[in-house]
Amino acid sequence: NTESTRFDSNLNTKILIHGWRGDSQESWLSTLKDTLLKAKDLNVIIVGWPGGAKNLYTQSVSNTRIIGIMMGILIENLAQKFNVSLNSFHLIGHSLGAHVVGYAGKHLNGSIGRITGLDPAGPFYKGLNNTEARLWHTDAQFVEAMHTDAQPIIQLGLGMFETCGHVDIYPNGGEEQPGCEDQVKDELPIDIGIFA
C-alpha cells in the first residue's frame, strides 16, 4: 500500500529481501537497514515473504517468480506515484531473494538502477541456461553478485558458482566462509525432489 508510506521522492531507495526459510525480522536485514541509513539519507524498504519462503525448497523456488513480479509492481507503483526514476532503486536479495529481485528487474525490463545478489541460491538454478528463470546481468542497469556458499549440493552448498552479474565476487573462493556457522545440516528439511 503506497498510501500510508513515508517515501521521500528526493532520496534513492534500497529494497531488501530475505531468502529461503527467512522473514522480514531477520537480524541481518535490520543491521543492513541501520547501516545504510547511518551512511546516507535513503528510503529503505524491507520485503517479507515468509508465506512463500518457509516451505519445502522446491515450493519456495516456485514462489520466487510471483513474489518478484509483485515486487516489480510495487516498484512501478512507487515510481509512478512519486514520479521517481527506476534508476534510483537498488534491490538487494539473499539466497532465493536474489532470484526474486532478478524477477522484479525482468518485470521492469532491466530499468532498475542496481541489483545486488547476496549468495544467489544454487539448487534448481545451477547450470540453468534459461536466464529468464534466474538472476542475470540484464535484470538491471548494474547487477552484482557475491557468491559465498557455492560448494556442490552434496556438500550442502546452497549457493551458485556460475556468474550472473556484471560483477561477480567470490570471497575465499566462493565456498564456505570462515566464521560462518553451518546450520544447514541441522535445519534442512529433506526434500527428496532436490535429488530426483
Automatic annotation (TrEMBL):
GO terms for biological process: intracellular signal transduction; lipid catabolic process. Its main location: secreted. It is found in: Secreted. It comes from the Eukaryota. GO terms for cellular component: extracellular space. One of its GO terms (molecular function) is phosphatidylinositol-4,5-bisphosphate phospholipase C activity. The keyword Membrane does not apply. Residues 114-178 form the PI-PLC Y-box domain. Keywords: Secreted. Belongs to the AB hydrolase superfamily. Lipase family. This is PI-PLC Y-box domain-containing protein. It comes from Euroglyphus maynei (Mayne's house dust mite).
